[in-house]
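Work package 3, deliverable 3.1, input record:
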Amino acid sequence: MFVHLNTHSVYSKMSGLLSLHDLVELTAKSSMDKIALTDTNGLWGFIRFVQHARNRGLGPIAGVNLITKMDELIVLVENQSGYENLCRIISDVHRNLDKPIIELIRDRSIGLFFLSYNEKTLSLLKKIIPSSHLFVELRPGFQENIIHNLARKLRLEVVVTGDVYFKSKSDHEAHLTLRAIHYNSTKDNLDSSQYKTLQHCFRNEEQMIELFPNSLSFLNNSYYLANRCKTNWSFINTIFPGLSLKNTHKSNTKLKDKVYSGAKKRYTNLNDLIRYRIEYELKLINEKGFSPYFLIVEDIVKQTNATIGRGSAAASIVSYCLFITQVDPIKYTLNFQRFIHTERKDMPDIDIDFPWDERDNILNYIFKKYGDERTAMVSNQVFLKPRSAIREVGKVYGLSNEEINQITKRIGWYTSRKNLVSWIRTDTKFSNLDLDETLIKVLKESEKIIGSFRHSSVHSGGVVIVPDEIEKYVPVLKAPKGVQIVEWEKDQVEDSGLLKIDILGNRSLSVVRDTIKHINLNYQGDEIDKKYFNYHYIQPIEDKKTNEIMKSGRTMGVFYIESPATRQLLSKSGVVDFNHLVIYSSIIRPAANRFTNIMLSRIHGQKWDLIHPDLDFLNESYGIMVYEEQVSIAVMKMAGLKYSEAEILRKTMSRDSMQSHIKLWKKKFTSLCIDRGYSNEVIHDVWDMISSFVGYSFCKSHSASYAMLSFTCAYLKAHFTAEFLAAVISNRGGFYSSYAYMSEARRFGIIIIKPDINKSYYEWRGYDDKIIMGFMSIKNLRKKSIYLILDERKAGFFDSLDDFLIRVDLDLADAMALTNASCFDKIGFNLSHQQIAYKVAGYYLQNKNRNTLLGNPLNRKIDEEDTFRLEIESFGYLISIHPVSRYRGILSNRIIYAKDISNYCGKSIYLIGLCITHKESITRTSEPMQFLTLEDETDIYECVLFPKAFKEFGDLLQWEKLFIIRGIVKESFGVCSIMIEKMASLQQWVKRLNSNRHSA
Amino acid sequence: MNVRDVFHIRLKGLELQAEQIIDPTLKKRPVAIISSNSSNSIIIALSPEAEEEGFSCGMKVSTIRKVNHGVRLLPYNKSLYTKLNKYIYNTVSMHTPIVEPRGIGEFFLDMNGMRLLRGDVQNNGLSILESINNKTRVIGQVGIGSNKLVSQTITTVTSDKIYQVKEGLESQFFSYLDPDILPTASEKSVNKIIKFLLINKIKSLQSIIKSPDEFKILFGVHSVQLAKESHGKDSRPVKPLEEKDIILRQTILFEDTNSKNILDALVKDLAEQIAFELRKRWQLAKKIKVEIHYADGYQMLQYGKVESLDDFSVIEVCQLLFEQANKRRNRIRTILIVASHFFPFADQVTIFRTIDDKNMELSKAIENIRQRYGVNALQTANIFQALGKS
């Protein structure tokens, strides 16, 4: 009877190769009923491990392989106190790897079993650990008789372990690769102490007996010890942070007071419906004991002015009245059940977006208020993906950065393919890649290590708060940037029952804030000042101008609805009110493309029927499932599942880590529906819609929250375009580059003014029909210098270049950056650019007793090429002209302007354009294709490269930005796009044209 | 008046011309000389026909193979080019005793006083080109100026077979040229200011020089040199070739690698060869350099000294230097070991046998075989295996 009590999964950083799924499967196939996971120095994947083990009917044992600089030890958990102690020990190891093991476990040994093969360690431990909890470990690589003798000498029992790191001996090479990556070395240069031998593969009982034929009773000991370990893990008890108000009753009363006080601000007249909803929600919240949670979130939210609470919380009137969310759930019929349900036992999530540049202050506030001992951020667990795996293995094999980049730059950050060699051999985007022997070796080894845990970093916003001591619940560590994080990522934190609040940075909230600030500054004293002073008082819904820009898809810069796909959807639909925008925000998901087109037809009048009368709740979304709660309701109604089961299905659909369970759910759903008399056709159609929720999806309240912010942004863009787009660029935009937003501003008739030493600010500023570029747009100009200039300018504008030179003490590099960006042109009066540069260089090159140079030897007028070069150097893009207009004069007049595309429906036309974004996609038959957004001097236009054209021209997109294309104008729901037939690099085209003309 | 005449002879694309001499069918065809046969190698020189097809120096061979199969790719034949260069050196040395070679295909000739002997300076230049052409079929051009800077600039900026800038006209000649042509303009601080001031002709620099204080502020410690160069002044003499006393051993790996076993064996092999040469001379080297060239073009080197003549000591020194130099994981393409600064080996007689004595005896025994059958006649197993792979 053997049980593995020393196993390492991929969570053992850069050494373990077994996924939790594989580990559990191997264990189950070997007829073992328990398994201990002892990853190196952490419980990184513990919650997942418990879930996998339970699904396979195994008893999961918590443990760790403690490896410090001096020693090594296997620790297994006996009971809950042991688990808490283990978390504390691991946290301590994270703090100090030099600490002797005896120091680590002193006073924390209760509830834990310890295994070691080291005589010195065992002798030390024997002094503080009873022999019932201390064992001599016999692991592969050790001689049986030596360990037997040691046990006899110390009078301790021996336990055999497998010390597993990989599945089979053939994985050993991959293990060596991981170690070489870890030690920043090559495989040849690894020291034998730095890696495990071939012996450390997974063995079943028979193979373990073969390995240790003289230790049968010690093999059995592993089974007996496993039976003494804790396997009944429960995570349903939610952990609340304690407030200063210890009494729950007081919390409830406080919450009620705050809600009614907020309700008076939100609704001037509190009618019965509102009161009833508030009372209903409060009753449920009080029953569940969630009041302190709401009070904490409210406390956090009030630290800033502009926030949006999103997720299911937006369906709550309590959240709305506490100003946590911004959408009226009564007006927009948002269903509270999705947020808190009578059957729901776990904590409801309240996710809050803050302006991205205020997020750190909010986090500081939380840490200050609740302290390090009770608070930590959620971690991001970074695993090797194809891109990073190839990079790391490439380095082990000595490839240069250039060689590695030629593959990795063609692989997306989130690509999750495993069969790299065949993929790279067959995918057209790698068509010009020279796959030599070394590269193939690198790819094959990369395949094996994909999924290995690399390191953990800080999650963008998840914060965990506990009532007493965080190290009791989960090991914590300091992230490289100094923040305390828990070992688990957001899903494990959620599943463990810890209270998680998502404090996320949102650029659009900063955009709204800054736009309002600048409107107030620009129109100081006007009525507008009062009208727009507060974010909460903007009323964008049903505003004509707002609706117009949304209907025409001119929403670049507008939160969440600015991507090419969404802009096209808006203009194709022609109906953009709040309710529709909520639908659109939900349906724009990769897996739901087909349903988007069906919905568009129905919006445009096509007749439709519900799939089944039981699905009448789909009437609000044209008979199509668009919200998460619709999935839950559908499975509850059709399959008769309980709320809690429906919730599990919903979560399964949205999590990558649970995709393997979908097939099982489909089977279950189908058989239950058949039992309840639904036809196969209906079941198939409904499941088809459910499966479009794979990856990510939203609940209605979440979409409503987002739609409200979208409307607010669209309103600001429609009425204060310059201020809004300047704020978008200053906050470093969203989907597009600064240049693309600048072009968008120009399409709205706004003039872009280059930075001016007397007029520019740090950020871009808009007023009326002008946007003046901010100093932040100048490359190589340090923040410190910008603030120095702005500070000095408070004492008065700079009268002349000499005045500036005397007043502002800059480094030459900063002064050069300002000069090249033409900041001094206005105060240089009659001086040419060259003369200004001469004075600036001459002045700042002097170390002390600086004087302005009197000579004036340079007087060349800079030409167009100089201007372009300076603009590219200073800003990274051209300001004075559109890049394609440099070439238009040379090209044939058969090339049309983007603004005229709609006149050529169905025809083949030539266009030129700058690519502002592109997105790879796949067809239904899994062939790669590409969507491109191009723009010329007159407009922006959408193009598509279908597989055939993509195969031929797709790789151009890797290095080119300017294109000449030939394509057919396709019209769909009144919106035109280009189906590309041929495309070429514009610069190459012009070069060829010139050389042809020359030779002719 | 004592007129200085310095010739600069430039034989453009000598590597390519050399290949065309051997194989005349290569003329008028797109040809490129590449650094090695590996797909990672790059173009070093190319014919105008290849240039017309869109190729350029520095382009990767793998790219060329993908794009075009018509270009003839020739691996870098160093020994051929060196031999031809040496032959041309001997040819031009017939015209003046002071010849300074500058890499492959470039020579400075100090022709002072030759006017009296050989007459017109331009005829002189032409006759040098003619003699090169007669003996080797290599075509070149001559720049004639009063110093090295002027003559070299001429062959850089003009395509004329022969061009002369007369003494006194240097300023004028330089005034319309790009400042990048000046050696001092490659100094980072100088280049930064030139670019910032948008100076695209040397005449702008010449006009700033008129205010020496301001010129000094702008170009600091480089101002004096830059001012001289801007007016075409250069006092560097033409230095005849000096024979350097070095022992150089180099290995170019057939396949780039970072395998420790192979690299260790190759270093050992090179070190043995160096030790063999040192023992032949009965000299030690005050300076030994291990140079590593990586596949991505990066180089690392480390210096040390050889204090004992036996194989084991030299190998130990070289391997240590190699380990110290090889701080990267990247694959290595070439390893060089250069010994220099030699001094006699004082063979101290000792009463007691030391380990060094034993090593020396063993080295000598091996050496006897090698002297008879060649240096590669005896190899240790790992070197044999590594060389088999490399």
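Chain B is about 45% helix and 20% strand.
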